[in-house]
Amino acid sequence: MRARATYRADDINLRVSAQSLEGSFKADGSAQIAGVRQSLRIATRRRGANGIRVKAEIQLTDIAATLQTDGLLGQEDGKPIYDGGFTAQSVADVANGQGEGSAATLEPQVKLWRSEGSFSLNPGALEVDKASLRYGPEDRAVRIDGDGRVDFGATPSFTARLSGKQLDLDRFSGAGPSEPLSIKGGAEALIAVIKALPLPPIPGLFKLDLPALVVAGGLAQDIHLEAETLPRGWKIADLEARLPGQTTVSGRGELRSADEPAFSGQVRIDSPATFRLRLMVAT
Length: 283
Prior knowledge:
Elements: E1 9-18, E2 25-33, E3 36-44, E4 52-60, E5 65-76, E6 79-90, H1 103-109, E7 113-121, E8 125-135, E9 142-151, E10 157-164, E11 167-168, H2 169-172, H3 183-196, E12 204-215, E13 218-230, E14 233-243, E15 247-256, E16 262-270, H4 274-282
Parallel strand pairs: 10-12, 11-12
Antiparallel strand pairs: 1-2, 2-3, 3-4, 4-5, 5-6, 6-7, 7-8, 8-9, 9-10, 12-13, 13-14, 14-15, 15-16
């Protein structure tokens, strides 16, 4: 049985024009969507044998971002379906920063992001494929690839599978290998990233796999993370990583990202070179 839900747009103010009753069409204006005022711009071509090509741009004022789509609107099994590509990016303002890599500018800089990929949207679900996310300043952004799905209805939810290449927090912070972050600086960089991540508006699960993470001049490898959403953060269902000295780390618990980030849970460290690990942490 399919769950039913109602999605409502109010106070619609659009200027619509058309070359003919068969298209092409243009619409420009704004609407109240889920209680938030959004700017809209839509353009179509004439209808073809397989449907009608639709381009859209939405200014997402609640998260300071823009979303652009370009795809074919048609039918499948008697239901509307919209297939195409998308680009979403932040519109954060970092013009008033106090210098690259400084504590004052690190947090607003990590709010810069851009995502691209392909999508398929129907009344029951949104599927995203071959997507990429570039996060941080352009000259040292990190990149994550992945795919995901959002199920609509009375109890909407999402799943996401993410992966990436080597993630270098030393370079991301503006220091680089010649001046790696201290342990304290690495922790502050992670906290800035966590605080900048928006909490999804619906419950869901994501998995992340990274071959390597560089931070504070050290290297963590084979990182695997599974997390579920919570009202004020994330439930870490599984976290595994391999550190220098044949050390392995695993953990689970709750990560609060709202207000001041904090972790509550269990962490296990297994190391055949305990003394060497203690020296690394102490420095």
